[in-house]
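CORE FACILITY INTAKE
Project code: CF-77B
Contact: R.S. (postdoc)
Sample description: multi-component assembly, two entities in total
Requested service: structural model of the whole complex
Turnaround: standard
Below are the sequence entries exactly as provided by the requester. Do not edit them.
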Amino acid sequence: MSYFESFWTGLCMLQVNRMRSGLTMLGILIGVAAVICVMSVGMGAQSDVAEQLRTLGSNLLLVRPGAQLSGATRLGAGTAHTLTEEDALLIRREIPGVQLAAPLLSRSAQLVAGDRNWSSLVAGMDDDYLVARDWRIATGRMFSAAELDNGEKVAIIGLDIVEQLFNGRSALGETLRIGSVPFVVIGVLDKKGLGPTGISQDDIVFVPLLAAQSRIPGARPASTREAMDFILVKVVDQQLMPDVANGIAALLRQRHRLMQDEPDDFSVQNPADVLNARKDAMHTFSVLLLSVASVSLIVGGISIMNIMLVSVSERTREIGLRMAVGARRRDIRRQFLAEAMVLALVGGLLGSFAGSAAASIIAWQAGWPVVISPASIMLACGVSGLIGIGFGLYPAHRASRLDPIVALRFE
Amino acid sequence: MTDTLVAVSGLCKSYRSGAATIRALADISLVVEKGDFLAILGRSGSGKSTLLHMLGLLDRPDSGRYILNGQHVEDLGEETRAAIRNREIGFVFQSPMLLPRATAVENVALPLAYAAVGRHERDRLAEDALAVVGLAHRASHWPQQLSGGEQQRVAIARAIVTRPALILADEPTGALDSATSDEILSLLARLNSDNRTIIVVTHDEEVARYAGRRITLHDGSVIKQDAGRSIRLAGVTQNQRAAS
């Protein structure tokens, strides 16, 4: 009897005991559905982080000012005003392996356009910042050298600003007031989505660095005008990142005239590390959930084994007859193995649909990012097939070892 | 070229039942020619079913020789014995033993599924076999739609579908009323007249009436035989008490 025929017989057997087959398959169905659902949600979360990593830009180091001392109290990273545009310039010039160093100065400001207003982040940048982060301008253009040098009142805005202030229509050439100072919109950025901290990266207005220093209201005291929020350093090669980080630290210590026993008044971080750590944590969590879901697959396998043992015992005389008319032991084994596999595979297939449906409902209801990949469905079906083989092997073996005479006499 | 189909000599078989050893067959020797219709008679426990199982390669003797269709079969491996059962032997049991989830023609075709016969050829051969037993019109019926006699005829069709050299029937009318029994035995006699070799095991003298020759077993030994043209007893032993 061919493999195909054994499978066909197995499929026919499903119809004979529909209720029993259905209940047996339910175990595998629930297991596979749980696995697919967990994998889809897990992969969705990971792809979300991967997307954040992508929009972060690659090979980046973040240089931030250190903590400011207020008496004996340290106020936290970024509170000191120790980084200047010149630091950025020197980092780029002096340290080998640095492709560019982009300083950024940002502050929150009230934006007004026509009769609408919106509070957002206004950031002063030079021409390197967008390159460092691999951000592209969707429509319009980048600041010209003259606009940067003169600190002219031009702005490049994110999509959220277009939505909030211009109601989604093209904002190019429109005037936008930051505080009371009018800026002309010359570019709109591509969509970026949420950043690592969960804040929209599209809710931002870029202006020339000089304009941010001199024209934005609510500026810091004159003494700190030069101070940058951070300097983003892009390194040419990932391998060089530790060396570059050390180089930056040495250079800044020297420039800030720090004594040997004084702590750094800045910090150099790799922002990708944070995201990678989050990705790892999600991966661990997914693996944990997957192993819980896998338990139900094993339970499903056991119920298949149980029902196959019942089936072997019920059909003992049939096995005897098949042996009498010429079935070899391996024919009998193959037949029962095929039936177990059909149970597991049909259960797995239905479970894949159920799991995909559940993941879609989660995506729709909870708004989580969900990735239903054909690979995970194929994997789940493959695993359920293996479970069919694994748990069907013993009953099939038992059937094949029956003594034909005893089997024929079985009542 | 010999016409001997079955040649058995010195066949012994014992079973252990707890501490006791039960002797099922004691030094049985027998020859069956092609085209014979042999009845093996005996009371329950006489060893007749055990002998049928030996002849049908479902069981192995403790000692003795068995030549089937010119081939020594007593020491063959499981796979080869299964293949010989499939090719050379057709079984008819007391109950028809039809698969309830298969139609008459599918039941008849079952042995062909293990003989690597193609699907269409299988159906054709099974329909031919059903025609031989007079059930061509019932081919697509389910077993539960057939009467007891019809079911047993389907079982006979299944036994002849591979055109085996030997048909073994174990109390083929044991579960049937007398009219239906006659019908089944007439069918077997007709198959025998078509030069098919048939061995029937029964406790019923009436059944044995249809057979050309018969032997009677008691306590695993042949106690009586109708020596005839086609049946010869060889190697008569001390255990055997020749009657008449």
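Facility notes:
- The CA atoms of residues 111 and 117 of chain A lie 5 Å apart.
- The two ends of chain A are 26 Å apart (CA to CA).
Invoice: internal transfer
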